[in-house]
Design goal:
mainly alpha; globular
Length: 169
């Protein structure tokens, strides 16, 4: 399972890298009204930082996406980010391992945190789905800031791709 999962995620990150190679620095950092003025760079940073937090959590046994380190350089320096995505892709191949996931679902009134047993492969699956979700949002942003034609399956879940293929037959 892990090899297939790693290949799928690597393929998604390669699509993202290809997009970053086509965008200009200005397009990468341009606020998009349809994305609540977020930039393509901010969405890319968000994706990358979840993988980085998972890697950090793998080493200490605790994953906390809420407390991930936010690196402004990822959202503003396209070339840096292309190399970082390559590093993330290369560094994903690990043995499965039990982890604890900490999530803060508290509000200003309630400081409740949630601790859940999980494992590395489960979190890779979560990150895969998280990546697809943000790539779907980025598709909207790409249309707003450029004339780049994205692959038809950019930001589309594997189950949707399979469903569309069965409908086309």
């Amino acid at each position: 399972m892990t090899m297939h999962l790693n290949k799928t995620i690597s393929s998604l990150l390669a699509q993202l890298q290809n997009l970053l190679e086509e965008l200009s620095d200005e397009q990468y950092c341009m606020p998009v009204i349809a994305l609540s003025n977020a930039t393509l760079g901010q969405h890319t940073r968000h994706i990358a930082e979840f993988y980085l937090e998972l890697d950090h959590g793998y080493q200490n046994g605790i994953v906390n996406y809420d407390n991930r380190k936010r690196n402004y350089k990822i959202e503003t320096f396209r070339i840096f980010t292309i190399h970082l995505l390559q590093e993330i892709s290369a560094g994903m191949i690990k043995e499965n391992k039990e982890l604890k996931l900490i999530a803060d679902y508290g509000t200003a009134i309630n400081d409740e945190i949630c601790i859940v047993e999980t494992n590395y492969f489960r979190e890779l699956l979560y990150n895969l789905e998280h990546t697809v979700h943000h790539m779907a949002l980025m598709r909207i942003g790409v249309t707003a800031v450029s004339g780049i034609i994205l692959p038809v399956d950019f930001g589309v879940a594997a189950s949707t791709i399979k469903f569309r293929k069965t409908c086309a037959q």
